[in-house]
Each structure stands twice: as structure tokens, then as C-alpha cells.
Write a structure and sequence with these properties.
single chain, about 675 residues, Serine Threonine Protein Phosphatase 5, Tetratricopeptide repeat, 4 domains, 28 helices, about 50% helix
Length: about 675
């Protein structure tokens, strides 16, 4: 018999002390056989089909698997049936004996104490009341024509919400996983099919049925999986996440397929399915996008169509002989190259959030697929985003390292060779702005590795190159172009001999009057290039920081900060033995999030703090405004009020500031200023 924690505080007369918003407080004592449990067990054995036993099992199931869930007393009365207390029937507490000691009531809401609920579910299962039977009973009892919104939400979470495991999400919800484990595949299938019937307009449940049929069924039944995936698509034909399920089924089937004709047949279906996902994702807006798990609004672009296509291309290539691959490469090479280019800048400019990185297999699949179809290693790319991340090679946080590629750190000679090749290419294509961008960037990257390299082109010459393109076709330039404009035209630090009011300085010493214009143009280019669409909801990575040097060397690549942070964390974790990579990732992320990186002497030594033009207070959940003058280190007299110090950086969207000595504040560019969004953010005018 299952054992439940004993406590006399688990009683309805103490329910007013339990908050709906927080966890139930239950005494932490040794697990012993409680006489009340013996009484409940005996009652369930004798009355397994009584309405109060059924209600208790439903409350236990909800409370165990959906924290914060409840049933309204009116819903409980619906399950208990007549006579209702308002018509002279016995009160709820009387009808729920002997279960009432385990039920918490807060106003009209009823639930089982969360720490007791899982044990109650196990006990009931041991006594013959299974999880699957209870789930079906819950839906048949309460899911009629009119279903309360809170109940819809609870049942969706109960059957579809996947928890995050140590490294990846679970395949199914905790309840479905437990039903599979303790009752078998078909019981889980029965529950989900019941939900699909009860919620006839929802695509979520047929989607999970489809996934169950090809992931959990042994052997997989791809026919049923495809049938249910199509049913989900029929219920929401514009949603890219439900379309993705069909692509995943074909991809899974491809892995198990042999024979050239069979392989190509399944591959073609998979390619088409993922192209459909891509088309639908392109048409989705963030305010209307539904996620696969919950059917709620998604703030991120669905990249599964693009990534799924590359995975299918990689799998198909690896299944074919060298002779059979020729036509495949000829037909798919251009599409593979285009999708590789997408992920090269997508992963180079952003990450899911400040704590999270893409899983290791992500870049591994992208890079392997690209090499299969082009014979070129991804690490040798000299595209604009490829150059931006080439200094990351060898770092713990680099996508190459996470993908377990043995990519060596770029040497000075490597970077000088890249710069030399791009110089030659530029000289042969002086009117090609894309070639010019790469040539200029190669010099900035090289200067970060060796500031006094004799191969470096002078800043004056690089400015001349960029200014050739400034006055023409402004509406067609990329965000990367304006990033280079800002880096090259950003004025040097104010000469020490010049004192007095900043407004009295010559314009060329105080700031370039066109800088704000270029910030605005960069923002517009970010929108025009659809980066705002594709990178929405993701954390934009700072690419460069303003340093204490001059010329090109005043721009510090983020990799130099990452190297300092990594060395610091390695020292901290020197004695650790277990799960070192996970601990290292968490600690590095924490240092950025908490602003500890700005306190490291090695970083303070290379970055140049700037002061805002007017004093500000940075507070959580408020949009703030600060002003800085490029070229100026001191704006206000310290005797009046010393404003906070900032470090200045650039993302692909524009300038950002990071308050020195405070948690990270990200500030993004808007049309006439660097505007913050809700959160730890501020606004900067240039």
C-alpha cells in the first residue's frame, strides 16, 4: 500500500491559510501509515464507483499533475449529483467523507494538497482506480457543450504540457508518460483520443495522438501518425507548428527506410512537408502564432521548417551511395546553401535567451549538411556573419565547441590570410558593397587579434571605402553595413587638453552629427531585412564593445570578454568533478545576467566607460532614458550629480548600453533614439 506523509494540518478548516498562488504548505515529517489513509483505502475498496470516490480521484489527478489547478465547488457538486445542499442536501464536507481531510478549500475552489496529491494518485491506482480511467472520467463528467475556460486550460496542461528534463523536453506530458509506463501505450492513446473527441476544434490533441503513434508505439504506426497529424492541420491549417508534426513523422520514417526508391519517396514527402512549415511560418505574425504545446501566442519565429529541411537533406545524403548522391546534390544544393546562410546569421546574431543556448545537435546538423552538399567546412566561411563569429572558435560557448567540432582558435596568420583574400576580392569588385563590407570587417576582426598587424588597412582608407556607398541606395543597405558605418565613423575619445562644456566643442570632436541618422537607418535596415521578424523573442548578442584603444582597436569583439569570463569560471570550478560542462554553462550565463562580468578587472581594463548626459535611475519594469555623446567621457560636473557609468556595445540592431556594476540592461535602437522595452532596459539618445 502507498505511504503518505502524516499531518493533521491537512484539513479543510485550515484551508484559509493556503494560497492559490503558492505551493501548499505540508509538514515535512517521515512517511508513515496514517490511520486516515487506512480508512480511505477501505472506503475506496468498498465504494470504488461512488461519486465522492470519483471526485476525490479527479481532484488528486489534477493537483498531482497540474500545479495550481482546482475544481469549482459547483463542478464538484455536478460530479457528486443530487441532492444539492441548496435544496436541502447534506453539505459538501459531509458528502466527501472520508476524503475531506485531504481536500483544501479556498472560497469556491477545491483541490488536494499538492504534496499529498501524487501519493493519493499512486494509492488510488494500487486500489484499482487508474490514471487513465480517472482522466477519461474527468472529461466525460465535466466537458460538455459549455466548458469553463479554466478547465480547458487544466486539461490541456494535463495531457499536452511537456516538462523540461535535464537537457531536453520530455516527449509527452507527465501524465501521459506515467500512463504509458504503468498502464501501457493503448491506455494513453485512449485518453488522448477521448480528448480529441471532446475538444473537437482543438488541434493540440490530435497532434499529440500523432506523436504518440510514431514515437511511443512499438513498432511505429506511420499511417495512423500521418492520419492524426493531418487531422490537427485540418483544425488549424495556417499554423506552422502543427504542420511541423507531419514533417517530423516523415523524417522519423526516413531514418528507418532502406532502398534507393523508398528513401527518395519518403525524402520527397519530408522535404515538401518542411517547405510547407516554412511557408506557414513566413506568414505568421507573433500576435497570431500558436505554439505546438499550448495553442497560445508565440513570440518567436518557427525555424523548424528550415532546420527540418536540412536534417532531411543530411539524412538522405548519408543513406545514399556516392553515385546516388549526385542527383540529390544537384537538386538540393542551392536550397541547402540558402538555409545554411539563414542559420549562420540567425545563430551568430542571437540566442534563445540569456540563459539558454541551442542544443548541441543543432549546429552540428546544419554544418554537416552544408559540408555534404558543398564540401566546404562551415568554420571556413568568410561571409559577414561567418567573420563576426570566427574569433569565437575554441571558446567554450562557441557553437562549434558545443557541436563537439575540433575547431582550433583562429591564429593571426589565419586572419591575415582571410583579410588578404578579401582585399584582392574587393579590388576586383570595388562596386560590390557586400564584398566591401566583408573586407572592412576582416580588418576589424584582425585588429582584435593583433592591433599592430602590418597587414591592417588604415582607418582613413576604410572610411573612404564605406563613404563611397553612404550616399547611394540607403534604403537597400543591410544592418551590417550600418554597423560598420558606426564603428568606422565613431569619434575618438575627447583629447585631454580640451576642457569645458561639451556643447562648446567642435562638432568633429564632440560627435558626428550624422551618427544618429545612421542609428536610425540601421534600425530600419534591421526591420527591412526581416531580422525583427526572424529574431523576435530572442536575445540579441552584443557583437562589439567600445574599448580604450584608438582606431580599429577601440572596438572590442565579444569573444575577448567571453575568454576572460571562461578563464574566471574555470578557476572557480577547478575542484569540481561531476557535470562540469553544465555547471560551467550556468555559471557563465549567471555572470552575464547578474552583471558580474563588468566587475572583472581584466574587462574593466579594456572597456571604456561612458557617462550619460543626464542623470537617470534604472529600475526594474520601467522604461528609462539616458543620453550619451560619442567622443565624450565626461558630460556633467560631478559636483552637481554624477550619472551612472555605462559600457557601450552593438548588436545587429544597433547600440546597446550595459550599466557598470548593475544587472544587465539591454538598450535597443529605435527611429530617433535607442529605446528600451519593458524590463531592465533604458533609452539612449546619441
Amino acid at each position: 500500500m502507498s505511504c503518505i506523509t502524516s499531518t493533521d494540518s491537512v484539513a479543510s478548516d485550515r484551508s484559509d491559510e493556503t494560497s492559490d498562488d503558492g505551493p501548499d504548505e505540508v509538514s515535512e515529517v517521515e512517511c508513515i501509515i496514517n490511520p486516515k489513509i487506512q480508512k480511505v483505502s477501505q472506503y475506496v475498496i468498498e465504494n470504488p464507483e461512488s461519486t465522492n470516490t470519483q471526485l476525490f480521484s479527479m481532484l488528486a489527478l489534477l493537483s498531482a499533475y497540474v500545479p495550481g489547478s482546482y475544481l469549482l465547488e459547483s463542478e464538484c457538486q455536478q460530479i457528486l449529483g443530487p441532492p444539492d445542499p441548496i435544496h436541502g442536501g447534506p453539505p459538501f464536507e459531509e458528502r466527501m467523507k472520508p476524503f475531506i481531510d485531504f481536500i483544501s478549500k479556498s472560497g469556491p475552489k477545491c483541490k488536494i494538497h499538492q504534496k499529498l496529491a501524487p501519493e493519493c494518485v499512486v494509492l488510488l491506482n494500487d486500489l484499482g482506480i487508474s490514471r487513465s480511467a480517472t482522466a477519461r472520467n474527468l472529461m466525460s463528467s465535466l466537458c460538455g457543450d459549455q466548458i469553463e475556460p479554466h478547465l480547458i486550460r487544466f486539461i490541456k496542461d494535463l495531457l499536452t504540457k511537456r516538462e523540461m528534463g535535464e537537457k531536453v523536453k520530455d516527449k509527452f506530458s507527465r501524465l501521459i508518460e506515467d500512463i504509458k509506463k504503468h498502464e501501457g501505450f493503448y491506455k494513453a492513446l485512449s485518453v488522448l483520443r477521448t480528448a480529441s473527441d471532446k475538444f473537437g476544434l482543438s488541434p493540440v490533441f490530435p497532434q499529440v495522438v500523432a506523436r504518440l503513434n510514431y514515437i511511443a508505439r512499438n513498432p511505429p504506426h506511420y499511417g495512423y501518425a500521418i492520419k492524426w497529424a493531418n487531422k490537427a492541420i485540418e483544425r488549424d491549417p495556417l499554423n506552422s507548428y502543427f504542420a511541423d508534426t507531419l514533417g517530423q513523422i516523415h523524417k522519423h520514417r526516413l531514418l528507418k527506410t532502406e532502398g534507393f526508391e523508398n528513401i527518395m519517396n519518403i525524402a520527397d514527402k519530408a522535404f515538401e512537408a518542411f517547405k510547407d512549415v516554412e511557408r506557414k511560418a513566413e506568414e505568421e505574425e507573433s500576435s497570431k502564432t500558436a505554439t505546438a504545446d499550448t495553442g497560445s501566442t508565440s513570440d518567436t519565429f518557427n525555424n523548424r521548417g528550415l532546420f527540418g529541411f536540412l536534417q532531411v537533406a543530411k539524412i538522405t545524403f548519408e543513406k545514399l551511395s556516392q553515385q546516388q548522391r549526385k542527383s540529390l546534390i544537384q537538386n538540393k544544393k542551392m536550397e541547402v546553401e540558402a538555409k545554411f546562410e539563414f542559420f549562420e546569421w540567425y545563430l551568430g546574431f542571437s540566442r534563445p535567451d540569456m540563459k539558454t543556448l541551442e542544443p548541441p545537435f543543432f549546429w552540428k546538423d546544419v554544418a554537416y549538411c552544408y559540408k555534404h552538399y558543398t564540401t566546404i567546412p562551415a568554420a571556413e566561411s568568410t561571409s559577414f556573419p561567418g567573420l563576426l563569429v570566427c574569433l569565437d572558435h575554441g571558446l567554450f560557448t562557441s557553437k562549434e565547441r558545443r557541436a563537439e567540432f575540433l575547431e582550433a582558435e583562429k591564429t593571426v596568420s589565419d586572419l591575415e590570410e582571410i583579410r588578404g583574400v578579401l582585399k584582392t576580392t574587393y579590388e576586383e569588385n570595388v562596386d560590390d558593397v557586400k564584398v566591401a563590407e566583408r573586407y572592412i570587417l576582416s580588418n576589424i576582426v584582425l585588429s582584435n587579434k593583433m592591433p599592430d598587424s602590418p597587414q591592417l588597412t588604415s582607418v582613413r582608407e576604410l572610411k573612404t571605402i564605406i563613404q563611397r556607398f553612404l550616399g547611394i541606395e540607403r534604403s537597400h543597405r543591410s544592418p551590417g553595413f550600418y554597423l560598420l558605418v558606426l564603428l568606422l565613423l565613431w569619434p575618438e575619445e575627447k583629447p585631454p587638453a580640451l576642457q569645458g562644456d561639451a556643447t562648446q566643442l567642435p562638432l568633429d570632436l564632440m560627435f558626428d552629427c550624422d551618427l544618429q541618422q545612421y542609428v536610425t537607418l540601421m534600425k530600419k535596415a534591421f526591420e527591412r531585412a526581416k531580422y525583427a521578424k526572424y529574431l523576435r523573442g530572442r536575445h540579441l548578442l552584443p557583437l562589439f564593445f567600445l574599448g580604450k584603444g584608438s582606431g580599429l582597436s577601440k572596438w572590442v569583439h565579444k569573444s575577448r570578454l567571453d575568454a576572460v569570463v571562461e578563464e574566471k569560471v574555470d578557476v572557480e570550478l577547478a575542484g569540481e568533478q561531476e557535470d562540469i560542462n553544465t555547471k560551467k554553462s550556468v555559471r557563465i550565463a549567471d555572470m552575464w545576467i547578474k552583471g558580474e562580468v563588468w566587475q572583472l578587472p581584466e574587462i574593466q581594463e579594456i572597456l571604456l566607460p561612458v557617462e550619460c548626459q543626464s542623470p537617470v535611475r534604472l529600475q526594474e519594469q520601467e522604461e528609462q532614458e539616458v543620453c550619451i555623446c560619442p567622443g565624450e567621457n565626461k558630460i556633467l560636473d560631478a559636483a552637481v550629480l554624477r550619472p551612472p557609468l555605462f559600457y557601450l556595445g552593438f548588436t545587429i540592431q544597433g547600440p546597446v548600453v550595459f550599466p557598470v556594476g548593475r544587472p544587465q540592461v539591454t538598450v535597443t535602437s529605435e527611429e530617433n533614439s535607442l529605446a528600451g522595452h519593458q524590463g531592465h532596459e533604458a533609452t539612449v539618445d546619441i
